[in-house]
Design goal:
heterodimer, A: about 280 residues, alpha+beta, 8-stranded antiparallel sheet, 3-stranded antiparallel sheet, 15 strands, about 30% helix, B: about 130 residues, mainly alpha
Chain lengths: ~280, ~130
């Protein structure tokens, strides 16, 4: 079992490859790392020269890369399928909540900015071929689904070298093999295909004007979601789909997929066919 | 002079007549030509070879007929096996589709890819 850990997309990445050690396997792991770097350069909102930053700055982009187009399309499909619970247009709301820089920079500080009015979510986004246009005043945050998409893409790349698992900060994609994944201290799920993701308010949280904030915005209010479980882990056919489903379930939507929910009271509940 | 010339002509004619007679006698027109035994042997050999060739052709024709019949039977056998295999595949597909439909109606596709285990985790998921 080969393991490589590195940092990309503002989170810890772990890649497991069930292959004999050697030059071929090392090349595959190198490709995996390079692919994360490439996709971060496409979808990061923290890099000024990324494609997403250019789109958010200029409101449109004429020759977007196929990856950006695909992730935006996936996000919009998810927005329709979840009746707006998952929404990529929460960028300004996340920034208004104080998550306006990489989380490493946000977390240590207690932000004491004046509280802004809730940002508007749900604006129009048009994708026509390689052209993406945003409604004026709307910006995209592809952080969650982008990590899931990247995990799926890298797992596809690695699969030629052997059974693999890609863990992008909790968004997990597997191809081949059986992979025990720890969900809580007591529960381990064995995943044989597809993906798994966790959404919650137990991490990526910070204090602003003395109030705890977290990064999961409810698009209906434009504010960090309240009255939610602590966290939800969902298994789906891909990491990107699991990410969407986990966020939807976290925000109270109905998700008919295997899931582990840690309720606000701290009780762990298995649902969706898990027992 | 005239006598000498006449004598000379007479001698020449006599010589010519002599040689013509010699040639005629030497040709033995009264004798019948005997057949060459080598030609006869060759003709005999040719006849024998023609007979052998006919025998070989008959054997080849018989074998060809037998081969064509065996080929036809084999093709029929292969077609039958293929038809049986296709029927079996169609039945298997039908069964798997109905199984998949039954499984889909009872649980989501993702449910078949995951189960709770009591193993040490290789990695952990957390809020992304």
């Amino acid at each position: 079992m080969l393991r490589r850990a590195f940092t990309a997309m503002g989170t810890d990445i772990e890649v497991l490859l069930d292959a004999d050690p050697g030059e071929r396997a090392e090349r595959a792991l190198d490709r995996a790392e390079a692919e994360f770097e490439r996709l971060e350069q496409v979808m990061s909102r923290f890099r000024d020269d990324s494609e997403l930053s250019r789109l958010n700055r200029e409101g449109s982009i004429a020759e977007a890369s196929p990856d950006l187009v695909r992730v935006v399309e996936l996000s919009l499909e998810a927005r329709d399928a979840t009746e707006g619970r998952f929404d990529p247009t929460v960028h300004d709301a996340v920034v208004a909540a104080g998550y306006d820089r990489t989380f490493d920079a946000v977390a240590p500080a207690t932000i004491a900015d004046p509280v802004e009015a809730p940002a508007r979510c749900g604006g129009a986004v048009h994708v026509t071929g390689p052209t993406i246009e945003l409604e004026p005043g709307i910006r995209l945050d592809l952080g969650g689904i982008g990590k899931g998409y990247a995990a799926d893409r890298v797992a596809e790349l690695l699969a030629v070298a052997g059974p693999c698992l890609v863990n992008a900060g909790g968004d997990i994609a597997v191809r081949g093999g059986s992979w025990p994944v720890g969900v809580t201290d007591e529960i381990t799920l064995e995943l044989t295909r597809g993906g798994l993701a966790t959404s919650g308010r137990d991490r990526r949280r910070w204090l602003r004007n003395g109030e705890e904030q977290h990064h999961l915005i409810d698009p209906a209010t434009g504010l960090p979601a309240a009255g939610t479980p602590i966290r939800v882990t969902v298994v789906a056919d891909s990491a990107a789909a699991a990410e969407v489903a986990a966020k939807t379930a976290f925000l109270g939507g109905t998700v008919d997929l295997p899931q582990v929910v840690v309720t606000a009271e701290g009780t762990t509940v298995l649902a969706g066919g898990l027992a | 002079m005239t006598d000498t010339s006449h004598r000379l002509y007479a001698v020449v004619i006599a010589v010519v007549v002599f040689f013509l007679s010699w040639a005629a006698v030497a040709a033995k027109p009264w004798a019948t030509a005997k057949p060459d035994p080598r030609l006869a042997a060759l003709a005999q050999r040719e006849q024998r070879l023609r007979y052998d060739a006919k025998l070989v052709q008959q054997v080849v024709d018989n074998r060809m007929v037998a081969y064509r019949m065996a080929l036809k039977a084999r093709k029929a056998q292969i077609a039958s096996i293929k038809a049986q295999a296709a029927a079996a595949q169609a039945r298997a597909l039908q069964v798997s589709q109905s199984t998949a439909q039954a499984s889909q109606s009872s649980q989501s596709p993702a449910a078949s890819s995951v189960r709770v285990v009591n193993l040490p985790p290789l990695t952990i998921t957390r809020t992304s």
